[in-house]
Amino acid sequence: MTLKFHNTLTKKKEEFKEIEKGKVGYYACGPTVYDYAHIGNFRTFVFNDLLRRYLKYKKYEVKEVMNLTDVDDKTIKGSQKANLSLKDFTDKFAKYFVEDLKTLNIEMPEIMPSAVAHVKEMVKMIQTLLEKDIAYKGDDGSIYYSVEKAKDYGKFAGLDLENLKAGARVSHDEYDKENVADFALWKAWDKDDGDVYWETDLGKGRPGWHIECSAMSTKYLGSTFDIHTGGEDLIFPHHQNEIAQSEGATGKKFVNYWIHVSHLIVEGKKMSKSLGNFFTLRDLLEKGKDPLAIRYLLLSTHYRQQLNFTMDGIDAAHNSLERLNNFMIMLRNANGDSKQNVDSFCELAKKKFEDAMDDDLSISDALAHVFDFVREINSLENLSKNDALKVIKTMIEIDSVLGVISAEEVQLSEEEKELVDERQAARKNKDYAKADTLRALLEEKGILLEDTIDGFRIKRK
Ligand code: AMP
Ligand code: ZN
Fold this sequence. Notes:
It is built from 14 helices and 17 strands. It is α/β, with parallel strands linked by helices. Strand 16 and strand 17 form a beta hairpin. Helix 4 (119-131) packs across helix 6 and helix 10 (342-358) packs parallel to helix 12. The chain starts with a strand and ends with a strand. The relative contact order is 0.12. Adenosine monophosphate binds next to helix 1 and strand 11.
């Protein structure tokens, strides 16, 4: 099967064809570093990671660029409130963000540009837009993008532009479909911006949010690149404006595949800072939740379906993960003498996993196949070390995409292993009294053994 994505640009599922053979240029809108990211944000970032890991699994060379929005309305306001310089304020949250990425086992993008470090590129793009008469200077000194000059402005976001008032302007970074208007590329300094400004050929001021992503993506990935992602809230105005700016400036198609992640919601509402219904990753870790279970929860719903967040959801994810981890422990301790045809099981499991992922990253199906595989292998008796190693290899390959299996493994001594085997044999022979005695003995040694539907799990106390 070939890889397919649902492309927001065409509103269709399409086969992925890269521009340069074997390579993928990929831009992910990154965080606004004015606070800790919440786990709604991390749903999108975990999806970005799943996508990059699957592309790598398919042997593509991935160049992922994820920006840090460190100058916009929110970061400026936040730094003023905190009484810190914009740099000190945003550096702090950028650092926390990178720490959170690591905690969630999200791979670092190849490039993580900061907007503040790319004002020169933004100014240049705005100048090009001015030269082409697509942008104009307002009487307040700010520079606006004239949406009526853009080819097909609004098509991407499905806007009805009939009621658009010619010349109406919006200077905030964020606005809704009702307020579609010419938007600010460059904001002339005003006293609310305090000491945040640049003296440039465009005058004294600072860039708007949308131009940041156009300038940084095209700088690192070229005028046209393969994939651009973000949460669905970014379709309008942010991504619509990115397309208008970039295509206006370069005259070329901006992005071939746009992939948008549906929201993580809480009781029917989008998790967001403004609604106050959010948890940061750190909130959840403080409640004792396992970061890999959080990752599992965030990635296990298809990206185009809303994900309803609950604490029970994390606990269910934790149980699924334990099944995988215990399976790995069982494999690492396998020492049987029967020869099984695991090669065909492994091949089939991988093929089914790939077919599901190729089909618009259908993660629920892909995971269901992984658990079928776990069940099949668990049902084999006396697995030999050699066969177990083949299964481990398959699981490691699959986990290079999922990133959820913990590296930590419970190592059992020979004596402990014998007790576990003896206990399982007793249970199989329905000698439950003996099985319980052996389990108690293991517990005395600090090993907790728990029966599960598909076998058993072991933990150290
Ligand atoms: P921000 O830091 O607000 O710029 O957002 C960072 C990323 O998180 C963007 O791609 C947003 O679209 C995404 N995002 C924001 N809220 C949610 C949510 N509740 N569920 C999924 N993604 C979200
Ligand atoms: Zn962006």
